[in-house]
Design brief:
Elements (H helix, E strand, L loop, with lengths): L1 E5 L2 E4 L4 E8 L7 E7 L5 E8 L5 E3 L7 E6 L4 E6 L8 E8 L13 E2 L3 E6 L1
Parallel strand pairs: 2-11
Antiparallel strand pairs: 1-3, 3-8, 4-5, 4-9, 5-6, 7-8, 9-10, 9-11
Length: about 120
C-alpha cells in the first residue's frame, strides 16, 4: 500500500481545512487508517482513525467535536475535515494505514505512512 496525503495549508484561527489521503496498491489488506500530527519541537501524536470496513471512528480528545474523519472505500481515500482550527493545531499531518488491530493510537499498529502535509493556523 502506498499513501499520499494532501490538502494542508495556511488558515486563520476558526477556519477550516480538509485533508485527504489517497491509498493505492493492496488496499484490501488495510484494517484501519489514521491521522497523526507532529508540531514543531514535539513528538508525533495520534489525531483520529477510522476502521476501513466498518467506518468506526476514533478521535483524540483535543480534536473531538471539531474534526471529522471519513473514508470512501470505492475511491480508496480517507479525509479529515478540520473545523474551528486553533493555533495549537499547527503541525505536519501524516496519514497512515495498518492491517493490525492494535489500539488506534499506537504508531506501531500502522504499516505504511504517507508523506506529511503542513497545516499552519495563524492567530
Amino acid at each position: 500500500v502506498q499513501l499520499q496525503a494532501f490538502g494542508g495549508g495556511l488558515v486563520q484561527a476558526g477556519g477550516s481545512l480538509r485533508l485527504s489521503c489517497a491509498a493505492s496498491g493492496r488496499t484490501f489488506s488495510m484494517y484501519r487508517m489514521g491521522w497523526f500530527r507532529q508540531a514543531p519541537g514535539k513528538e508525533r501524536v495520534p489525531v483520529a482513525a477510522i476502521t476501513w470496513s466498518s467506518g468506526t471512528q476514533y478521535y483524540a480528545d483535543s480534536v473531538k467535536g471539531r474534526f471529522t474523519i471519513s473514508r470512501d472505500n470505492a475511491k480508496n481515500t480517507m479525509s479529515l475535515q478540520m473545523n474551528d482550527l486553533k493555533p495549537e493545531d499547527t503541525a505536519v499531518y501524516y496519514c497512515a494505514a495498518g492491517s493490525s488491530r492494535y489500539r488506534w493510537q499506537q504508531e506501531f499498529g500502522y504499516d505504511v505512512w504517507g508523506q506529511g502535509t503542513l497545516v499552519t493556523v495563524s492567530s
